[in-house]
Amino acid sequence: MRETTDLFAEPAEPDMPAGAFSVPRSLVALAETAILHRDPERFALLYTLIWRAFRGEKHILEDAADPLVRRVQLLAANVRRDIHKMRAFLRFREVEEPEGTRHVAWFEPEYFIVEANAPFFVRRFATMRWSILTPYRSAHWDGETLRLGPGASPAEVPDDDRLAEYWRTYFSAIFNPARLKLSAMLSEMPKKYWRNLPEAEAIPDLVRAARARTDRMIEAPVLSPPRPTRRTAPPMPPTVPGALGALAREAASCRLCPLWTRATQTVFGEGPGDARLMLVGEQPGDQEDLAGRPFVGPAGQVLDRALTEAGIDRNHVYVTNAVKHFKFEPRGKRRIHATPDRAEIEVCRTWLDRERALVQPAVTVLLGASAARAVLGRAVTISRERGRPLPLAGGRGIITVHPSYLLRLPDESAKAREYAAFVEDLQAALRLAGGG
Ligand code: URA
Questions:
Q1: What is the DSSP pairing of strand 146-150 with strand 137-141?
Q2: Rounded distance, CA 320 to CA 284, Å?
Q3: Is the pLDDT of residue 67 over 70?
Q4: What's the pLDDT at 160?
Q5: What percent of the chain is predicted at pLDDT more than 70?
Q6: Which of 98, 125, 129, 245 has the fewest CB atoms within 10 Å distance of its CB?
Q7: What percent of the chain has a predicted confidence (pLDDT) above 90?
Q8: Largest Cα–Cα distance of the chain, in whole Å?
Q9: How far is the CA of 143 from the centre of ligand 1 (A)?
C-alpha cells in the first residue's frame, strides 16, 4: 500500500496502470449516483469516502452510522428521487418536422440527471423521435442515435397539442373525487412540475367539483347490480387486495385509447403479486373480454396444457396482456380479433409497466410480437430471438410464440413440432426463474 494521500499518484498495485485502483462495486455505484447532485462538496465527500475504502475500510458502506456514509447516501437518494420524478412527470408535446413528428418535452431537474436518465427514455420511447430539453442539457433521439446537447429554454417547446389533450383526458378519467387527498397529491406531484403537466390544468376544476361529485356519489341510491351483458362492464373484483388490486380498479376505467368504447371491460392481469414468472400475451380475445380474465379462451387452453407439460403451475404465475381491451372487427354476429397497433401498445404500456413494477417477476415470458414490443419497446423477429434469456430491468425476459400461432398452423406435424418448442421455451423460463 502506498503512503501518499493522492489516489491517482501512482499504481495502487504493481501490475496496475498509473492512477488505477480498485474499490468495491457498490461504492462505485453509489458514487456514480451521488456525483450527479448539485452539492458543491460532493467531490470532496466522494474522494474521502473512496480514499477510506482504498485504505482498507472495504466494508465502509455497511456502517450506516458513519456520518460520511450517511451524507453521501442522502445525496444519492435525492438524485434517485429526481430521476424518478423525471420519469413520472415528463410530458412530450408533438412538433411536426420535415422528417416527421418529433416529441418534445421540457423538464427542470434539480440535479444533473439527464445523461443518466436518457437511456431509460431511449428504451421507453425507442420508436419515437424525441427531444428532452432542460436548462443545463438536452437529449435527442432519432430512433437510432442518442445525442446530448446544450441546455435550452422552455420557449422551445410548443404549448398545446394532441398529447396534451390525451394527458388531460387520462388524468380526469383516473381522478376519483372520493379519494382526493390534496396533500398526498402535492407531495407526489409537487406544484413545481404542474406547469409542464397538461393534466395539471384540470386539477383546480376537479378539486372544486370534487366535493359536489362526492356528495352525489354518497346520495345516489344503491342500485341492485345490473345483469351482465356485453355492454355493461362489471367492476373489477373488489377482492383483489393490495396495490395490484388498486391498479386493476384504476385500469377498469381506462380511457387512454378508443379501444374501451367497443370492448366489454378492461381485462387486467391476474395471479400472485409475488410471482417469479410473468406471462405477457397480446390482448384479450372474445372470451376473455366477456369473462374479464386473461387467457381463458382457446389460446388459454393451449397455454394451460403447455404450462402443465412444462411443469409450471398456472396458480403460481402472473398472467397478463400488453393491451387490456379487446380489439376486434365485427363480422356478422362474430367479433374477429384485430391486432393492436403500435400506438395502442405504447399507450397501454403504462398499465403493464406498473404491473411489472409491482410484481417484479424474475422472468417475464413474452408471448408473441405484441408482447415483445410492449416490454422491449422494439420490433422483434420471434424466430431469431426466441428461447434466449434477455436482460430486462430488474429481471430477465424470454421471447416465445403466442399460443394462438400454434392454433393457426395448418399441418399436424408443424403443430406438434412448434408446440414442443413452445413447451421447451416455457421450461427454459422456469429454469431461469430458479424453479426447474
Ligand atoms: N390472447 C392473448 O394474447 N391474451 C389473452 O388473454 C387471450 C388470447
A1: antiparallel
A2: 9
A3: yes
A4: 53
A5: 78
A6: 98
A7: 52
A8: 86
A9: 29
Query: Is the CB of residue 49 less than 8 Å from the CB of residue 75?
Result: no
Cα-to-centroid distance, 314 and ligand 1 (Å): 15
- Cβ-based neighbours of 217, under 8 Å, separated by 6 or more: 177, 178
**Euclidean distance between CA atoms 246 and 238, whole angstroms:** 9
Q: For ligand 1, say whether the CB of 270 is within 6 Å of any of its atoms.
A: no
Ligand 1 atom nearest residue 319's Cα = 6
Q: What is the pLDDT of residue 203?
A: 55
| Grid cell at residue 273 | 403479486
CB of 321 closer than 6 angstroms to any ligand 1 atom = yes
The pLDDT value given to residue 224: 30
Domain span(s) for CATH 3.40.470.10 in the chain: 242-432
DSSP structure string for 252-270: TT--SSGGGGTSSS----B
Cα separation of 239 and 225, whole Å? 17
**In this structure, CATH architecture of domain 242-432:** 3-Layer(aba) Sandwich (3.40)
> Can you state the angle between helices 242-251 and 342-359, rounded to 10 degrees?
160
How far does residue 398's CA lie from ligand 1's centre (Å)?
A: 17
Atom index in ligand 1 nearest the CA of residue 293 equals 6
Tell me how far apart the alpha carbons of residues 118 and 418 are, in angstroms, rounded to a whole number.
39
35 pLDDT more than 70 = yes
Assigned C-alpha cell, 77: 437518494
pLDDT tens across 127-139, in order?
A: 888 889 898 999 9
Ligand 1 site, residue 284, Cβ cutoff 6 A: yes
Q: Is 289 in the pocket of ligand 1 (CB under 6 A)?
A: no
Look at residues 387, 355, 352, 388 and name the one whose alpha carbon lies nearest to residue 370. Answer: 352
| Residue 281 CB–ligand 1 contact under 6 Å | yes
Per the structure block, which three cell numbers stand in for 216? 352525489
Residue 282 Cβ < 6 Å to ligand 1: yes
AA identity, residue 265: Q
CA of 285 to the centre of ligand 1 (A): 5
User: Measured from the CB, is residue 294 less than 6 Å from ligand 1?
Assistant: yes
